Amino acid sequence: MEQNAEVCIICGRDQQTGILICDQLICEQCEQEMIRTDVKEEKYHFFVDQMKKIWYKMTS
Ligand SMILES: [Zn+2]
Question: Which GO terms describe its molecular function (predicted)?
Fold first, then answer.
């Protein structure tokens, strides 16, 4: 398996710290923003879309 660089799946920036979901990094900044973002906000759908990419990677 190829080792991914530590790049946040949400913002695409190189990050040293964050949470790993299925080997995909989500940086602390994005994690905090996701927690703060209300479901009704447009940005929430952006996060959901980014999260979907993780599942696509898993199943492909
Ligand atoms: Zn990020």
Answer: ligase activity
Q: How far is the CA of 9 from the centre of ligand 1 (A)?
A: 7
Q: Which two tokens stand for residue 56?
A: 């696509």
With tokens 């995909």, the residue in question is 24
Cα 39 from Cα 48, distance rounded (Å): 10
Distances (CA, A) of 26 to 6, 48: 9, 13
The SS3 of residue 41 is coil
Cα(12) to centroid(ligand 1), Å: 6
pLDDT digit string (tens) for 7-54?
998 999 998 889 888 888 999 999 999 899 998 999 999 998 988 888
